[in-house]
Design a protein that fits this description.
The chain has a domain at 1-108: Up-down Bundle (Methane Monooxygenase Hydroxylase, Chain G, domain 1), CATH 1.20.58. With 156 residues, it is mostly helical. Helix 1 (2-13) packs antiparallel against helix 2 (26-50) and helix 2 packs antiparallel against helix 3. It has five helices and no strands. The chain is 80% helix and 0% strand. It has helices at 2-13, 26-50, 59-73, 75-80, 89-155. The chain starts with a helix and ends with a helix. The radius of gyration is 26 Å and the shape is elongated. This is G-protein coupled receptors family 1 profile domain-containing protein. Keywords: Membrane, Signal, Transmembrane, Transmembrane helix. Residues 1-17 form the signal peptide. It comes from Adineta steineri.
């Protein structure tokens, strides 16, 4: 599980490196982003082939699909780089690119933190529910069989 999560994380976080390419080189950015998108889809396919087939989405499936959506969102700043917003298109392009980097980096970090918390919180919550059920069953067992033993002890 962690091998898959970590590799998907690395593929998705590598998309942030496209912002190191100058905004005027949009074809280089597009090439890297599409390569990472294809890598992510291929990795998801390979992981699904190695796991048993089930009819519902697992947490790993949700994480992989959300990462593919995140990779697709990196294509948006590339598409908006064609806009010229002022008399100095290179300056406005760099500023727009920087804002895109900050927003997408923040969204990526927030998403990773939320997924990490959800990954630990959901099993912990289920474990607490099972622990409460075990305690209740133990109390019921003791009260049921404890009384019969004490009553059988009085008879003897």
């Amino acid at each position: 599980m962690w091998n898959a999560y970590f590799l998907i994380f690395l593929i998705t976080s590598a998309a942030l490196s496209t912002f190191s390419i100058p905004p005027s080189n949009s074809h280089g950015r597009l090439q890297i982003t599409c390569t990472l998108l294809l890598t992510s889809v291929t990795f998801r396919w390979v992981v699904n082939k190695s796991l048993p087939t089930i009819s519902y989405l697992t947490a790993l499936d949700i994480y992989a699909i959300a990462s593919i959506v995140a990779l697709s969102s990196y294509l948006t700043p590339i598409a908006t780089n064609a806009l010229h917003l002022s008399l100095y298109p290179e300056y406005s392009l760099c500023r727009l690119d920087r804002y895109g980097f900050y927003i997408l980096s923040f969204a990526f970090c927030l998403y990773q933190i939320l997924i990490l918390l959800w990954t630990f919180w959901t099993p912990y919550k289920r474990r607490r529910v099972m622990q409460r059920k075990d305690e209740k069953n133990r109390e019921d067992f003791i009260s049921k069989f404890g009384q019969s033993e004490s009553s059988s002890g009085k008879v003897n």
